[in-house]
From TrEMBL:
The gene is ugpA. Belongs to the binding-protein-dependent transport system permease family. It is a multi-pass membrane protein. SUPFAM superfamilies: MetI-like. Residues 74-286 form the ABC transmembrane type-1 domain. It comes from Rhabdonatronobacter sediminivivens. It holds the Pfam family BPD_transp_1. The chain crosses the membrane at residues 12-31, 78-100, 112-132, 176-196, 208-230, 269-290. CDD domains: TM_PBP2 (cd06261). Part of the ABC transporter complex UgpBAEC involved in sn-glycerol-3-phosphate (G3P) import. Probably responsible for the translocation of the substrate across the membrane. It is found in: Cell inner membrane; Cell membrane. This is sn-glycerol-3-phosphate transport system permease protein UgpA.
Amino acid sequence: MQTKRMTFSRSWLPYALLAPQVIITLIFFIWPSFQALRQSVYRQGDAFGIRPPQFVWFQNFQALFADPLYLNSLKVTAVFAIGTTLLSMSVALLFAVMVNRMIRSRDTYTTFLVWPYAIAPAIAGVLWWFIFNPSIGIMPYMLDMVGYNWNHRRDGNDAMIMVIIASAWRQISYNFLFFLAGLAAIPQSLIEAAAIDGASRMKRFWTIVFPLLSPITFFLLVINIVYAMFDTFGVIHATTEGGPAQATNILVYKVYRDGFVNLNFGSSAAQSVVLMGIVIVLTVIQFRYIERRVNY
């Protein structure tokens, strides 16, 4: 098989095309990461500049893992990321399967389901805060009719459920588009052959459709975990601000609180480095081990 090779009339042209992306990456990713690594091994001086920052090696990291509040934040982040990922992906897959069976109204439903992705995380958080507000929200009223007293202001479990729903609701649209595209690419002849052989609709889905969706599922798994780790700050800040009693204080929000509110820049930088390391490790594990089970 003969492969085509792209040639440029000017030797500098490919470098010029790559330059904008390289510059953006250096300014907004590499340089901030370097500054965080540097700041994580310093203890911040006083606000008046009398006492300069002190180089403390890895004492900031040692203090982190000896802090029960930080260990609780790790656990909270794990629960939040798993809950958000599972909810957003499962609901998106259900919607994609339902819309894929439609013929006439498919484009209309697709448009409506994509709209929530255009809403900023903070706005999504405010919307669900009103829905679950114990005083004026409709959900506490409906739950009270079945005997459940909802109050996310004092109950940590209620607060966690609310922020998971708010975060997953916005991400469902993104997952839905990819699942719908994957379903459209599956050959109908395979499904029809299984139906002729007597396989039920549920069996056809789990034995044919879902395995063929594994590349998209794997991709979305990585994206959703990163989303839950980083892009949900606005939801937490607009709804619970990490409360009640640290029940929703995920890692990315704790970085903000310690750095910009408490002005503990050394600890905040160390937390950001740990968070970056966790995401890198999870991504490597997913690509190295989970991808082996993916059928391309």
